[in-house]
Specification:
The protein is of the alpha/beta class and 329 residues long. The chain has twelve helices and eleven strands. It has an eight-stranded mixed beta sheet with strand order 6-5-7-4-8-9-10-11, sandwiched between helices. It is globular, with a radius of gyration of 21 Å.
Length: 329
C-alpha cells in the first residue's frame, strides 16, 4: 500500500485534491482538526489533516506483466526485511524501467542498484543552532526509549565540550524524574523538571548563560490523543524561542504503525526522526519505508542502554547495515 498524509483548510476540497493526486482508490484511515499556516503561532486557521492509503489494487496492474526471476528474488528479500508493499513495488518498477533486460539477469547488479535506490531514499537531517543555548526536545510515544536517548544526546554534546542541561516535562510517569536524574548524575549534568509553559520559560532564562545545549525530555503520549499532543506543544512553546523537535520511534515497530505515529505527531511540526533500538532488529525496511513514504528525514540512530555511547548521526550507508542480504558487492 502507498500511504499519504495531506492537510487543507476545507475538508471537501482536501478530499477532492487527494483523489486528483492519488486516484479514486483511496481509503481514509484518520482525519483530525489541526491549526494550519501562520508565523510563530499568529494568523493560524483551523483546518484538516487526513491520513490514508491507496488500495493495493492500484498496483496489481503495474506488476501483471512477467517479472524477471532476479526481481522476484529481490521482492522476497525486501519482504523479508519488512519493507512495505508499496515501497517494494516502487523499487521493482524503477529497476524495470531503468535497466536493460540482460543487466537484470545479474544478481550483483540488482543488489547494487537497489542499494543505491534505498540510500537515495534515506534523507538525513542536520540540525541548526540558531540560538545559544540551543534547545532540542525529544518527543514520541511511551516505551520507545526517549529518556535514554535524551541522556545519550546530552552525553554526546558533553563529549564535544558543550555545557549541557536537561529539562524533563514528565511529571506523570512514576519514576520518570528519578530515571533521568540517575542517568545524568554520573556525567554531572544538571536536571530540572517543569510542568507548565511558565516553568519552562523560567528555566530557559536561568540557563541562558550557563548552558550551550538544553535537551528536553517530554512526556510520552499516545499518538491517537491529539489533545495530549497539543499539550506537549504548549509546554515547549514556553521556551520562547525556536525548538528543534526530534521524534523518537522504535525500530521494532511495524511500518504501518510507524506511519501512523509519524502522521499523528506531525501536529507538533517536528524536524526529524530518531530511530531507537536499532540493535534489536535485523530488518530495518519498516523504518526506511515509513520515512520515505512520509517524506521525513532521519537525524540519529540509537542502540543499547549504555548512556555514554550508542548514538550516531544518521548516514544512509549505516542504515543499510541493518538490512539482511544487502552487503556491498
Amino acid at each position: 500500500m502507498e500511504y499519504f498524509e495531506e492537510s487543507g483548510l476545507d475538508y471537501d476540497t482536501l478530499i477532492e485534491g487527494i483523489r486528483q493526486k492519488y486516484g479514486q482508490h483511496i481509503h481514509i484511515m484518520n482525519r483530525k482538526k489541526v491549526m494550519l499556516g501562520g508565523i510563530l503561532g499568529f494568523g493560524r486557521r483551523e483546518g484538516w489533516c487526513v491520513t490514508g492509503y491507496v488500495s493495493d489494487s492500484v498496483f496489481q496492474s503495474k506488476v501483471s506483466e512477467p517479472v524477471p526471476e532476479s526481481l522476484k528474488k529481490l521482492q522476497a528479500l525486501l519482504e523479508k526485511n519488512d519493507f512495505s508493499q508499496s515501497y517494494i513495488q516502487r523499487v521493482v518498477s524503477e529497476l524495470k524501467k531503468s535497466s536493460h533486460e540482460e543487466s537484470l539477469k545479474s544478481w550483483g547488479y540488482v543488489i547494487k542498484q537497489t542499494r543505491d535506490i534505498i540510500c537515495g531514499d534515506i534523507a538525513t537531517y542536520q540540525g541548526r543552532n540558531i540560538f545559544i543555548p540551543s534547545i532540542t526536545a525529544v518527543i514520541g510515544p511511551s516505551g520507545v526509549g526517549k529518556t535514554t536517548v535524551v541522556a545519550k544526546l546530552a552525553a554526546s554534546h558533553l563529549k564535544a565540550g558543550k555545557r549541557v542541561g536537561i529539562i524533563s516535562t514528565d511529571k506523570y510517569k512514576i519514576g520518570a524524574e528519578a530515571q533521568i536524574t540517575a542517568l545524568a548524575s554520573g556525567m554531572n549534568i544538571p536536571v530540572v523538571t517543569v510542568g507548565n509553559p511558565a516553568g519552562m520559560r523560567q528555566q530557559i532564562e536561568l540557563w541562558s548563560s550557563k548552558a550551550d545545549r538544553i535537551i528536553v525530555d517530554t512526556v510520552g503520549r499516545n499518538p491517537k490523543d491529539s489533545k495530549a499532543l497539543i499539550s506537549v506543544g504548549e509546554i515547549l512553546g514556553g521556551c520562547g524561542r525556536e525548538v528543534e523537535k526530534l521524534l523518537a520511534v522504535s525500530a521494532t515497530t511495524k511500518a504501518s504503525d510507524l506511519f501512523e505515529i509519524i502522521g499523528q505527531f506531525n501536529i507538533l511540526n517536528f524536524n526529524a526522526v530518531i530511530c531507537t533500538k536499532m540493535d534489536e532488529t535485523y530488518h530495518a525496511g519498516n523504518v526506511i519505508s515509513a520515512l520515505q513514504q512520509t517524506g521525513k528525514s532521519l537525524a540519529y540512530i540509537a542502540m543499547g542502554q549504555k548512556i555514554t555511547s550508542g548514538i550516531e548521526g544518521a548516514r544512509s550507508e549505516r542504515v543499510l547495515e541493518f538490512l539482511e542480504g544487502f552487503d556491498a558487492v
